[in-house]
Amino acid sequence: MIFINLLRAVLHLLFMAVTVVPWALAVLIAAPFLNSTQVYWMCARWLKLSVDSGTLILGIRNRVLGFENLPTASDAPAVLLLKHQSTWETFCMPALMPHPLAFVFKKELLYVPFFGWAMACMDMIHIDRSKRTKAFSKVVEQGQRLLNKGTWVIMFPEGTRMPRGQKGQYKNGGTRLAIATGAPVIPIAVSSAKCWPSKAFIKQPGVVEFSIGKPIPSQGREPDELMREVETWIEAEMRRIDPSAYPDAKA
What we know:
Largest sheet: 7 strands, mixed
Low-confidence stretches: none
Number of strands: 7
Strand content: 5-15%
Order of helices and strands: HHEEHEHEHEHEEH
Mean pLDDT: 91
Strand order of the largest sheet: 1-7-6-2-5-3-4
């Protein structure tokens, strides 16, 4: 079984490597003639292709809960705050969400050949983490502009991928952005580490659950207090959708 899963992982990696090069080149050529939304959906199609190939090759399927909690108006703002366990959810979110998304990410990713070059063509928020105050000012400025045009901003409050069953320190950057812009916060729990463990090459077939919480208004809230509410919901939901990862979870 380990050999089969290893073979699947190699095949999926090769599939992504082979397809990302022509796709990225097509984006680079087409981007000057398209608007930002068209560029986004062009890139999102490759991400969906990668997710679909993950289902076909790796045997990883998605189950989305709480889809009705997402705003339905085309110009409705939202700040999505996700549990982060693997690369899988970064590929899945653009493939699953009905609105364009803007990730907040470190600028170093823009230098990754082909993948990063295509990302540079998208209207997202890339920051220099060494300049924290300036970086957050950019997040608010760019976030407000993106939210005004109906793009949802997506952030991982723990800042990095966490191993299954573990919790990182929830930072308040996402709630600070929501409060500064007046956008509601939508917490999302993700059980991707069941199938795609953090920093692991071999993946396991199975079902990844995305559980979307109800929007939490940000007006009149304090960043730390709002983030504690987000953290409490996400971590409780993680114990519900992936109880075997948490020995303290009640049946």
